[in-house]
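Annex B.
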Amino acid sequence: MTAQDEGHSKAKERRHRSTVARLSFRLRRLYHGNRPKALRFQIVVLFVDLAIIALFVVTPVIRDTDYYLTIDYTVAAILSIDLLARAFAAREFLRWLRQPFVLIDIFILITLLWPYTFINFGFLRIVRLWALSQSGNLWRPLRRSHWAEYELALKAVVNLVTFLFLATGFIYTFFFREGSGIEGYLDALYFTVASVTTTGYGDITLDGPGGKLTSIVIMIIGISLFVQLAQAIFKPPKVHHQCPQCGLQRHDPDAVHCKACGYQLNIPDDDS
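Voltage-gated potassium channel: predicted structure tokens.
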């Protein structure tokens, strides 16, 4: 290779790196930026995520239909594109890859690509709703509106809904059989809600020691989540305002000083 060819090769490599860097920067601004264009993009992504989660909820109902695989692979393609885009937007790829929310998405993608091989793990896809809540992506648009004070209550609702459908999917997957008393997905959901609320009508029960243990776990966790939801609803409302000194983000609306460090706050008045 001549010196001229080597120079062209290096220039081409620099242009390639520059293109990748620009793409990464643009994606990072879209996924994590605060500009109007980025906010619109984040809202669109959020609605797509919620639509995918809704499909996960109804998957047991549509699993035997002719269009199930089409929907399944379409969702897999969308999730793959989103994962690749987020990977490009990450500053440190390996650190991003080790995040629990990313690992959950990768696991869900595997169940989507091989839906019948991992059919017994399909009910775990609903965990993506919890992951979306914990990552903050679900609440970022909310924090810029007057609904921010309801974030804790909405998080409690998300935790409860996630558990309800996770337990329903587990029951439907492992206890739905002929003569079990569970005729379909709706019966599994009915049993879960009856157990969580400790209503216990007794018209649907799970057989065997495994069924009893499952019922016990559902009731214990369900009661805990209901208490968490009640606390979030009836607690005095808080406002989001980061303390410049200690970083505490939630304060009473009329707080003058930070409860954690005593720093004097200047919380904006929404009415002004």
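The beta strands are 239-240, 250-251. The radius of gyration is 24 Å. Further annotation is deferred to the next reporting cycle.
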